[in-house]
Amino acid sequence: MTTLLYQIEACINSRPLTPLSSDPSDISALTPGHFLIGSSFLDLPEPTNTQPKLPLSVRWQTIQDQRNQFWSRWSREYLHHLQHRPKWASPKRDLQVDDLVLVQDPVSSPLHWILGRIVKTFPGQDAQTRVVAVRTRDGEITRSISKISLILPGREDVQFPQEKSPQKPPPP
């Protein structure tokens, strides 16, 4: 059970929070793992069991099945949470070129999030973006916006606080 909890912890702490740099060509993201161990989780920890009651292969397979069930449900629910779906209640910002996005992939393995930057948008008949082309580490892919979650808007929409210079008090 301890191994399963470590693996679930690694899954949760590998989720992308924000880009590591402001460079649009950099697709790396800051994760909770960066705060915990100084880098992203690259792989799940290996088990360190001393004497399991079940044969090791059966125990390991059970843990892997439980981890995969957790990953499937958690990634689906987390990605659903990232997508804002106000439907027709209020207008929302369309995905745009240079937005950092998370591509949903039901077959990706735990700890492997597909991050990318939008390179092209394809509007529908209503002039709303319906499909986007995304540049990832492995190349360019085209996906429906229902399979894309916005992580951070492109440069023109990011509001950085302005550094204030010390103000002189007005003369009396």
Helix content: 25-40%
> Which strand order do you get reading across the main beta sheet?
6-5-4-3-7
CATH class: Mainly Beta
CATH architecture: Roll
Counted up, domains total 1
Shape: elongated
* Biggest β-sheet description: 5 strands, antiparallel
DSSP summary: helix tally:
3
The assigned structural class equals alpha+beta
- Spans of at least 5 consecutive residues whose pLDDT stays below 50 are 158-166
Number of strands: 7
CATH third-level topology: SH3 type barrels
Question: What is the chain-wise order of helices and strands?
Answer: HEEHHEEEEE
Protein name: DUF5641 domain-containing protein
Pfam families: DUF5641
Verbal overview:
The strands form 2 sheets. The protein has a 5-stranded antiparallel β-sheet, covered by helices on one side. A two-stranded antiparallel sheet has the order 1-2. It is α+β, with helices and mostly antiparallel strands. Strand 5 and strand 6 form a beta hairpin. Helix content is 26%, strand content 22%. The protein contains 3 helices and 7 strands. The protein has a single domain (1-38, 55-84, 95-150), classed as SH3 type barrels, CATH 2.30.30. The longest helix is centred in the middle third of the chain and has 27 residues, at 56-82. InterPro entries: DUF5641.
